[in-house]
């Protein structure tokens, strides 16, 4: 049984045709699945293995190598705070403690309502705006208490 | 004031139009002379183009500093190796301290696209790819839009340009690991030879160039290789972008001619934050060994920092003030490397982890004098015994910090 709707199947099939070699679409397909399911499940791996004509182990190897993919569901909004040197100097630790207090979860966990998960991330390429805060791959700026307050109110 | 546009410095190239509103749009870019370099390159022919880039002394600005024309010249000819060849833009910037590629793409995406088309023409590639880190979603959308504009205007000619995103691994930014990622594999670096220019993406000849390197090309073609070479030092042509962050008044991206003293970069960024005293500067991103406050006269080109045991890297200047604990710095960097080690080579996988654990013990108050000897011994058994540049870095930065700031380490590691 496919865990995907007919429309979703079309999107995934399109990734096998996007690049000159079908296998080049695998990372994008995994990104798409992660976005829909908030994780990449065993069934998803099975499906992608068939779709890309690759061994299941190969899909699993990739899905477990990259930090963007998770085996358990993340929250709808993945909040990450950069732990890089410049962001640490700019107060990343304090920002993490603020977020943990606000969300009531620790790094790597998801709020019980499934709204947020919080991660300590490595360099986000925003050392000039540290401590950098990102939500679902979109840089939001320096993780001030005001920004944390605003995001946790606004994002549903 | 926008630090990117200080008119007092001579000859900004990549950042000169950054104050222009709507520079992201094709119309604005063309009004300012954009895509004229491409036109000129196509008219001049491949041989002349290669000669100009050779004369320019342009070197890879992603960190390795390999001569760009030299890299291109190692792509086998169509007769020797018939079939497709590729150009890949490395926009997987992830080294702590470096953010210039993000700024380049955000401000001026067409400059990159024009440079990419020039490179594709130089090696006769019909397929080009822009590999961008997944966390640069904003920049991905900017590039998507710019590519659509360029395509609609017929600027791509016979070349296709496709975007591809990474999935959060720093190691994907290393050329051979980037190619593995593009092939839908885990990002394990390859052991060259063969180099990617001979056997790269899907085994085909592939040039992988950094965003900044490619963005230089339109300007070199327009103004000539000699003009570019003269802006820099004898071995490193042109200008270079520095991403300045840490304990500094005005963090940001600053463009300087190659060979600028480190002191001037720090001054342009407003000096040390809060009027504190400078303790040290990491010159090129966290994988480059630290320079002390007494080494601010270091000339910043590919040779200058090397003479002091460090590297220009990708120009990620991190400023550290007098309050900085160097054990914390070492721990932060080794923790990063531990997290990002791909696990392929044992010395890197285990050595980075040992560094992280030992340094953490020091920070927690349990460090012993023996630990420092252990760090030396473990560190010396990693560099040169691994496949890639990440592994080569493990322990190097820690040993430089231990050597230059022994009192910080003695305070945390004693019996």
Could you characterize the architecture of this molecule?
The complex is a heterodimer of chains A (156) and B (415). In chain A, 44% of the residues lie in helices and 13% in strands. Chain A has helices spanning 6-15, 26-37, 42-51, 56-65, 85-89, 92-103, 145-154; strands spanning 77-82, 116-121, 132-135, 138-142. In chain A, strands 2-1-3-4 form a 4-stranded mixed β-sheet, with helices on one face. In chain A, helix 3 (42-51) crosses helix 4 (56-65) and helix 6 runs parallel beside helix 7 (145-154). The longest helix of chain A has 12 residues, at 26-37. In chain B, 57% of the residues are buried. The model of chain B is unreliable at 1-8 (pLDDT under 50). Chain B has a 5-stranded mixed β-sheet with strand order 6-5-11-8-9, with helices on one face. With 415 residues, chain B is of the alpha/beta class. Chain B is built from 17 helices and 11 strands. The radius of gyration of chain B is 21 Å and the shape is globular. The N and C termini of chain B lie far apart (51 Å). The chains are: A alpha+beta (156), B alpha/beta (415). At the A-B interface, helix 2, helix 4 and helix 5 of A face strand 3, strand 5, strand 11 and helix 12 of B.
Search tags:
heterodimer; A: 156 residues; alpha+beta; Glutaredoxin; 2 domains; four-stranded mixed β-sheet; 7 helices; elongated; B: 415 residues; alpha/beta; five-stranded mixed β-sheet; four-stranded parallel β-sheet; 17 helices; 11 strands; 41% helix; disordered N terminus
């Amino acid at each position: 049984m496919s865990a995907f709707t007919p429309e979703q199947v079309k999107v995934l099939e399109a990734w096998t045709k996007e690049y000159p070699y079908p296998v080049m679409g695998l990372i994008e397909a995994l990104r798409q699945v992660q976005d829909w399911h908030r994780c990449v499940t065993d069934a998803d791996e099975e499906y992608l293995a068939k779709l890309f004509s690759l061994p299941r182990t190969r899909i699993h190897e990739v899905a477990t190598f990259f930090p963007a993919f998770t085996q358990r569901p993340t929250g709808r909004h993945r909040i990450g705070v950069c732990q890089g040197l410049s962001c640490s100097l700019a107060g990343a630790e304090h920002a993490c403690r603020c977020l943990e207090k606000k969300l009531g979860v620790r790094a790597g966990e998801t709020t019980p309502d499934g709204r947020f998960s919080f991660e300590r991330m490595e360099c986000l390429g925003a050392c000039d705006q540290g401590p950098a805060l990102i939500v679902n791959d979109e840089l939001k700026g320096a993780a001030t208490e005001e920004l944390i307050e605003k995001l946790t109110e606004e994002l549903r | 004031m926008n630090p990117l546009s200080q008119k007092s410095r001579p000859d900004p190239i990549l950042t000169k139009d950054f104050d222009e509103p709507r520079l992201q749009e094709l119309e604005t870019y063309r009004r300012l002379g954009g895509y004229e370099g491409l036109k000129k390159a196509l008219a001049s022919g491949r041989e002349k183009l290669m000669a100009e880039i050779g004369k320019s002394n342009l070197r890879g600005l992603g960190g390795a500093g390999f001569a760009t024309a030299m890299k291109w010249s190692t792509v086998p000819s169509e007769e020797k190796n018939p079939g497709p060849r590729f150009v890949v833009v490395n926009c997987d910037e992830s080294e702590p301290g470096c953010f210039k590629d993000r700024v380049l793409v955000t401000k001026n995406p067409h400059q990159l696209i024009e440079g990419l088309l020039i490179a594709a023409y130089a090696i006769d590639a019909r397929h080009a790819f822009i590999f961008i880190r997944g966390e640069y979603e904003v920049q991905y959308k900017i590039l998507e839009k710019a590519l659509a504009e360029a395509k609609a205007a017929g600027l791509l000619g016979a070349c296709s340009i496709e975007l591809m995103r990474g999935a959060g691994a720093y190691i994907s930014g290393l050329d051979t690991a980037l190619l593995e990622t593009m092939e839908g594999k885990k990002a394990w670096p390859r052991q060259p030879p063969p180099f990617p220019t001979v056997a790269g993406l899907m085994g085909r000849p592939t040039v992988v160039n950094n965003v900044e390197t490619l963005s230089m090309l339109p300007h070199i073609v327009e103004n000539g290789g000699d003009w570019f070479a003269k802006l820099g030092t004898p071995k490193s042509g042109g200008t270079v972008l520095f991403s300045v962050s840490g304990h500094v008044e005005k963090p940001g991206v600053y463009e300087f001619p190659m060979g600028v003293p480190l002191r001037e970069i720090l001054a342009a960024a407003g000096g040390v934050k809060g009027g504190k005293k400078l303790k040290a500067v990491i010159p090129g991103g966290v994988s480059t060994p630290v320079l002390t406050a007494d080494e601010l006269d270091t000339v910043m080109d590919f040779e200058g920092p090397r003479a002091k045991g460090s590297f220009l890297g990708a120009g990620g200047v991190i400023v550290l003030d007098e309050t900085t604990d160097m054990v914390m710095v070492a721990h932060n960097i080794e923790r990063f490397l531990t997290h990002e080690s791909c696990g392929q080579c044992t010395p890197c996988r285990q050595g980075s982890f040992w560094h992280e654990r030992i340094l953490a013990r020091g920070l927690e108050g349990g460090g012993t004098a023996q630990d420092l000897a252990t760090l030396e011994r473990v560190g010396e058994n990693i560099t040169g015994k691994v496949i890639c540049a990440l592994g080569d870095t493990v322990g190097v930065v820690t040993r430089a910090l231990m050597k230059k700031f022994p009192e910080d380490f003695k305070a945390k590691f004693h019996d």
